From TrEMBL:
Keywords: Transferase. It comes from the Bacteria. Belongs to the 3-oxoacid CoA-transferase subunit A family. This is 3-oxoacid CoA-transferase subunit A. InterPro entries: 3-oxoacid_CoA-transf_A, CoA_trans_fam_I, CoA_transf_BS, NagB/RpiA_transferase-like. The keyword Signal does not apply.
Length: 231
């Protein structure tokens, strides 16, 4: 069985290219891959499309990448917060594009991307500004909007624990968008608090199977992580 790489955060994000679509997990601060976000900020990839539930404060979360001039488009449900004034200025100047998506629709678009479903219909957003320009179909007497799946080149996620193969366990609210994002990206990078041996996690506890997880880092103060095997 092929082992996962135990990366340091800088190495884990080193190949994220300009123009990539990056899915970033988290709901507020819960399940937010802070170390990976910081590493991506330091790496400096630009013209990113970032998909995240919310943006966060300037000092934390996706707002770091926005403030650093790395994001050209943000797809999210909750763009308000301490950074809102800066975001408005970027929007008005045309330096960033915002696609606002209802939270349930955002989760389902990402889930659909991971499941190989190209699009789906939902009544959410019908006859609102969010539905303008979208295909409308009546199903069982109710209007629905056509929404397209979301996939990413990379997903940056956080879990509580992983085994060496990358099977992930989440702690309560930490679960949020992370599992669906793990399945919807070409390369998923997981930030975890602990890595254990294969077999130490019960199959009943595993939420994200290792097939979806390509790289692991642990959150600690060590500069280097041991590399074991190949992706």
């Amino acid at each position: 069985m092929i082992q996962k790489k135990y990366e340091n955060s800088a190495k884990a994000v080193a190949d994220i290219e300009n123009g990539s679509t990056v899915l970033v997990g988290g709901f507020g601060g819960s399940g937010l891959p802070t170390e990976l976000i910081t590493a991506l900020m330091e790496q400096g990839a630009k013209n990113l499309t970032v998909v995240s539930n919310n943006i966060g404060a300037v000092s934390d979360g996706v707002a770091k990448l926005i403030s650093n001039g790395q994001v050209s488009k943000i797809i999210c449900s909750f763009p308000v917060g301490p950074h809102a004034e800066e975001l408005v200025q970027l929007l008005e100047s045309g330096r960033i594009e915002l696609e606002l998506v209802p939270q349930g629709t955002l989760a389902e678009r990402i889930r659909a991307g991971g499941a190989g479903v190209g699009a789906f219909y939902t009544p959410t957003g019908v006859e609102t500004e969010l539905g303008e320009g979208k295909e409308v179909r009546e199903i069982n007497g109710k209007k629905h909007l056509l929404e397209y799946a979301i996939t990413g080149d990379y997903a940056l996620i956080k879990a509580n624990k992983a085994d060496r193969w990358g099977n992930l366990v989440y702690n309560k609210a930490q679960r949020n968008f992370n599992p669906v994002m793990a399945s919807a990206a070409t390369i998923t990078i997981a930030e975890v608090e602990e890595i254990v041996e294969v077999g130490e996690i019960s199959a009943e506890e595993i939420v994200s199977p290792s097939i979806y997880v390509h790289r692991l880092i642990t959150v600690d103060t060590k500069e280097e992580r041991r590399v074991a095997g190949n992706e």
